[in-house]
């Protein structure tokens, strides 16, 4: 065939996408034909292939306006149908001389090439969509990072003001009661800064590799745990908390992270237990393991909830006065993993207990 083309055919346009011209037909890529003058326009409507060996001997096309206008005697055109069923256009060929095209071999070959073109067009479309989505995700990521950076800055400013004010208050007021309150403020400010850092790390997607820890050999975890309880009791003086510590062996751990984990567990125990309930805390270290158990009475946690309890943004049944993002247990679990340990939960109708287990590094 002297001329062939891949044509984009719409309701109002015939456009050449690619051409092969050996008869000086005169069309180049981007060239157009008047839609109504083409047989491709008819194929657009019925989606069937058209193959003509010799126009002068074909009773259906001998008087057709298209061969008369463009002066061809042989013609073949195959519809290009995309994966979603959309009609794209045609793969067509013409020649001023008769040719044997209306046979299974030639028609099958054109069908195969039309399908390959459709596959290629679908792939290009998917690639275009992927690139657009990637660009949107990139822009969203940049906005998210900017938001996180601004949020972190805005949170740290008032927190630093609180910490600095506590230091100033400690210098100008030496009363024991004041000094105790100042210490609580300072310690709480320090841990709040750590919480902000965790939130920013999580929000910016940097927790995929786990939370980084800075171990201190022979960390005084008993002091760390007492400090957290002291802070919680200062906020909730009417709540009953019992402590049973048996720390026989030193533990290599990140005290700040363990305090963060313990604060999450203790806060949850207070939130999910009746006001008059007693929260039992047990901490034991021996030559093999450090365990910390926080137990409270309250509603039993269902098995389905336990399965997703340590996932981010997952929470148990929430009462109207209970607020939070559902990150506390997830971050606590990540802290346990970072120490080579684990955080587990058991729940019955009488009691719910969260247990941290860490290996003692010798």
Automatic annotation (TrEMBL):
Database matches in PROSITE patterns: HIS_KIN
Residues of the Histidine kinase domain: 150-362
Pfam families: GAF, HATPase_c, HisKA
Coiled coil: none
Enzyme Commission number(s) of this protein: 2.7.13.3
Keywords: ATP-binding, Kinase, Nucleotide-binding, Phosphoprotein, Transferase, Two-component regulatory system
Highest taxon listed in the record's lineage: Bacteria
Enzyme class at the top of the EC tree: transferase
Any one of the GO BP annotations: osmosensory signaling via phosphorelay pathway
GO molecular function terms noted in the UniProt entry: ATP binding; phosphorelay response regulator activity; phosphorelay sensor kinase activity; protein kinase activator activity
Reactions mediated catalytically: ATP + protein L-histidine = ADP + protein N-phospho-L-histidine
Name recorded for this polypeptide: histidine kinase
Natural source organism: Pedobacter frigidisoli
């Amino acid at each position: 065939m002297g001329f062939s083309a891949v044509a984009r055919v719409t309701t109002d346009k015939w456009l050449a996408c690619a051409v092969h011209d050996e008869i000086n037909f005169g069309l180049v890529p981007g060239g157009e034909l008047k839609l109504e003058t083409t047989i491709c326009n008819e194929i657009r409507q019925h989606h069937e292939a058209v193959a003509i060996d010799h126009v002068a001997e074909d009773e259906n096309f001998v008087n057709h306006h298209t061969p008369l206008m463009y002066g061809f005697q042989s013609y073949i055109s195959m519809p290009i149908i995309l994966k979603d069923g959309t009609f794209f256009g045609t793969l067509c060929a013409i020649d001023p001389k008769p040719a044997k095209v209306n046979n299974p071999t030639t028609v099958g070959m054109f069908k195969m090439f039309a399908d390959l073109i459709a596959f290629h067009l679908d792939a290009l479309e998917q690639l275009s969509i992927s690139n657009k989505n990637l660009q949107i995700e990139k822009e969203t990521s940049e906005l998210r990072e900017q938001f996180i950076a601004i949020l972190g800055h805005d949170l740290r400013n008032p927190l630093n003001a609180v910490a600095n004010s506590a230091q100033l208050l400690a210098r100008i007021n030496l009363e024991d009661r004041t000094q105790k309150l100042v210490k609580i403020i300072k310690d709480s400010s320090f841990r709040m800064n750590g919480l902000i850092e965790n939130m920013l790390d999580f929000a910016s997607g940097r927790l995929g590799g786990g939370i980084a820890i800075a171990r201190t050999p022979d960390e005084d975890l008993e002091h760390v745990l007492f400090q957290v309880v002291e802070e919680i009791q200062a906020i909730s003086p009417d709540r009953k908390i019992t402590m049973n510590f048996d720390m026989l062996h030193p533990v290599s751990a990140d005290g700040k992270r363990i305090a963060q984990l313990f604060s999450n567990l203790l806060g949850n125990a207070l939130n999910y237990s009746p006001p008059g309930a007693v929260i039992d805390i047990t901490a034991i270290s021996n030559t093999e393991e450090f365990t910390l158990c926080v137990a409270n009475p309250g509603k039993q946690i269902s098995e389905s909830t336990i399965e997703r309890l340590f996932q981010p943004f997952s929470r148990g049944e929430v009462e109207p006065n209970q607020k939070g993002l559902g990150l506390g247990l997830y971050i606590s679990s990540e802290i346990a993993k970072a120490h080579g340990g684990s955080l587990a939960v058991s729940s019955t109708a009488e009691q719910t207990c969260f247990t941290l287990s860490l290996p003692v590094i010798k």
